[in-house]
Structures are given as C-alpha cells and as structure tokens.
C-alpha cells in the first residue's frame, strides 16, 4: 500500500472528507488530494501530525512507501545541513579575522616603526599561513555541503 492509499483509507475509516482532514492538520485540501493521488508527499512535520491523528506509527506510514521514506531521509539531512554550515562558516570567519589582525599589525609596524607580534610563540609558517588555511578549509567545507545536501 502506498502512502497515498494509506492516507485515503485512514481518512475514510475516520469518516472525514479531504477538507476535514486538511483542517485538522492545517494544510490545504489540495495538499491532501495530491498526497492521495501520489502527486506529492508531506513534510516530516505533517507526517508526524498524520501519524498522531490516525493513531498509527510513523514507521507504519513510512514502510508503506519507498518514495516517502527517501523524502524523510532527505529532509533529515537538510535539517543537519545548517549545523555543519555554521561550523565551516565560523572557521572561515576566524581565518578572515586573523588575516585582518595580521594586516593591521603589519600597517602599524610599518608606519609606527614598532615591532608588534600577534602570535608570539607560534611557528612562523603557521602564523603566516594559518589564517589562509582556515579560510580555505571553511570555504571548501561550506561549499561541499551545498552540493551534498541540496
């Protein structure tokens, strides 16, 4: 039994019209019609509401339709996407801030004739290329997430 067939049979078992079901879960009647005819699938939030309303488990609803199962998996990946994007964007931003600090220190040293060091005790190679490496890692990580989850 497909998801659409399951929704229709559960709705009819309860004696509800498409409009009544739609009102109970706060969607349009057209959405219910599209689910029942297999033209579209609900979001995970709506799937949870349907499960509660019909008194059946989400597992029972998911296992009936492979396409719906794949959609739920894709939705869950998209929910995880922003967490990793924030992480990689933060790494990129830290690299930008460190690079800006190095440039400001360079300008101050040049015009004021001082010898200001930002990362004292850090190997020269890491101090010079660290900010660029962070920017590169953050940029590549953030970009790869767009391709993976969308």
Mean pLDDT: 85
Distance N to C terminus: 29 Å
The helix tally amounts to: 7
The assigned structural class equals: mainly alpha
Shape: rod-shaped
- SSE string, helices as H and strands as E: HHHHHHH
Based on CA atoms alone, the radius of gyration comes out at: 27 Å
Helix content: over 70%
> Percent of residues in beta strands?
under 5%
| Topology, number of strands | 0
For the sheet with most strands, the description reads:
none
| Low-pLDDT regions | none
Structural account:
The protein has 150 residues and is an all-alpha fold. Helices cover 79% and strands 0% of the residues. The chain has helices spanning 3-14, 18-25, 29-37, 44-54, 58-63, 66-112, 124-149. The longest helix has 47 residues, at 66-112. The radius of gyration is 27 Å and the shape is rod-shaped. The relative contact order is 0.10.
């Amino acid at each position: 039994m497909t998801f659409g067939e399951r929704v229709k049979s559960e709705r009819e078992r309860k004696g509800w019209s498409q409009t009544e079901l739609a009102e109970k879960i706060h969607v349009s009647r057209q959405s219910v019609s599209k689910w029942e005819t297999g033209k579209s699938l609900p979001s995970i939030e709506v799937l949870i509401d349907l499960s509660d309303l019909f008194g059946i488990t989400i597992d029972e609803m998911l296992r009936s339709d492979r396409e719906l199962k794949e959609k739920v998996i894709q939705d869950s990946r998209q929910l995880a996407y922003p967490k990793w994007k924030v992480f990689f964007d933060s790494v990129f931003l830290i690299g930008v801030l460190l690079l800006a600090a190095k440039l400001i220190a360079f300008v101050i040293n040049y015009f004021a004739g001082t010898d200001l060091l930002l990362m004292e005790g850090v190997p020269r190679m890491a101090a010079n290329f660290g900010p660029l490496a962070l920017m590169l890692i953050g940029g590549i990580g953030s970009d790869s997430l767009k391709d993976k989850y969308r």
